[in-house]
Structures
1.
Amino acid sequence: MPSPGAPRPDCPFCRIIHAGAPARIIHEWHDALAIVPRGGDCTEDHLLALPCGHVVDFATGPVVSATVQLRAAGNGLALPWSHAAREQEPAR
């Protein structure tokens, strides 16, 4: 994966990854991790997949962002019906 930027102390995600800020980590890769969001604004079983280096936003590091999303998808973390959730696979 191309290198994302250096960790930033003002970034809450960098603090989780590099400074041990509290987070419920679901899965770790060498270059990314998946966490459960702390806020209540997400759907049940929602996860965030984060690169281990700082990326300003999804669009400024598209290759890094896509790689991190592929990590989650490759482990089935991005599929709502692969978790014990109320959502089911969409009807066809």
2.
Amino acid sequence: MNEFNTLHELYRHIKPALVARCEELRDENINITEEDIFLCLSRLKWKRATNLTIATMIRDIFNVTKEELMEGEKTDGEEK
């Protein structure tokens, strides 16, 4: 089991999946960054998850929809 001492360590660990998903989304003309996906999923899914695994996080990254990303942007605006 992987345990991370900081959020930065976790981000570095899953970054390859974030990069790959960004490339897929850019092929669909969706301009997004790795950090955007990470923040969106952190707020919409992972914040309230229990027993969250890296495998689940990677699956979420590759399955995140355009609609979820748009919802994440709305949430960003409300939190600022």
3.
Amino acid sequence: MPEITAKEQLTQVESVGIRILGQDDPRKMTLNQFNNSPELLFHGTSHPMQFSPTFDYHSKEYLTQSDGSTTLGFGFYTTDNEIEAKNYSIVRQGGGKVQPIIIRILPYQARVLDLRQKII
């Protein structure tokens, strides 16, 4: 397979965009099935939180108690890379010897904006 340049790669990618995640209901899974699901996502945070699908990200509570990161806008951000979530948590807690806070999320029929790039 011939190698392509970085410039050529950039012309062959596009955002994945809106998609639905989670075909299997996590409420019907064993803990082992949950933890080994290929759809498992991670959320690194600066403080313990209770996840709620109806949380208002424009609320005064969020604006005054969040870690202040709205780089890509208001919302609940996840990654499929546990190390990235761990590093984000450490940075948001100020670095040093802190305990990373990572929440495991297994979406079920969740409509999400996927910002990764795909090769076209």
